[in-house]
Fold this sequence. Notes:
By secondary structure, the protein is α/β, with parallel strands linked by helices. The protein folds into two domains: 147 residues, Medium-chain alcohol dehydrogenases, catalytic domain (Quinone Oxidoreductase, Chain A, domain 1); 139 residues, Rossmann fold (3-Layer(aba) Sandwich), CATH 3.40.50. Helices cover 31% and strands 24% of the residues. The chain is built from eleven helices and 15 strands. The strands form three sheets. Strands 3, 4, 5, 6, 7, 14 and 15 form a seven-stranded mixed sheet that branches.
Amino acid sequence: MKGVVLTAFEGPDALAVRELPEPAAKEDQVLIDVEWAGVTFADLLQTRGEYQSRPQLPFIPGWEVSGTVRADAGGFRAGDRVAAVSVTGGFARTVAVDAPMVFRLPENVDTRSGAALPLNYLTAHFALLRRGALRAGDVVLVHGAAGGVGSAACQVAAAYGARVIAVVSNEEKAELARSLGAHEVVAAGGFLDEVRTLTDGQGVDVVVDPVGGDRFLDSLRSLRRGVGRLLVLGFAGGGIPTVRVNRLLLTNTAVLGVGVAEYWRQDPQAARAQWHELLPLLKSGRLDPPISAVFPLEQAAAALRHLDERTALGRTLLIVRA
């Protein structure tokens, strides 16, 4: 089969297209003929050796895929249309995935959209509902609202009855955020003052932050006293910020880590339970990932460079089977 292999931890340029043996499904794994693969920030970090875990070289990147089940396994039937979190192996024509991380697609969701769903939407669900204890009526500030995790967080938060304030860097991204359900949009530069104005000085209940870096302190300052929760999903902005915990004490606010992969490792059935909770929103069309760029499998390196430029709107995909 054709696949894309990382040969060194030197970024996207170290990817090579090769003919590879097909994977053999182990017990409780599902063999998937891949039609589409999502291109994620986690994939980019893995190519540089900067992700929390470093698979042994050479390996096939690819965190999420969609396609059809090859043979009956793990409660699925041959031909079932599925999406899956593969962690590695997705940038290839066939992948074997642990059965709890495979999700049957509703009839109204095609495999193109399916490849953009599992990682980001399950991450947003875990962040907002499990870690952030989101309630209807909460005010949620979403950084990177036009990116993969941010766009999913906007849709999930709005679908659960929150008022969403999206943080973006330009008008094109602002238009996308509004289309995803954001009620207000603020510019990344000076977002704190705008948030205070929009909330009559009260601040927000929840901050979804996959960016970190220089925005972190103002995110803390934007929290509503007594109830505010800042959800840390990653550090796309570069540096890892630190917290002066006396600020948390004085404002009765909280900073919460959001490590969904660790959550799934501790409870392998958790992802499927999350998917079941999101199914009504998928079937109704409330959750519909924005896809702005599609590359052929052979151009996986270009797709990751496109993501690295930070100009991508919504999701970037690889088409694996035409």
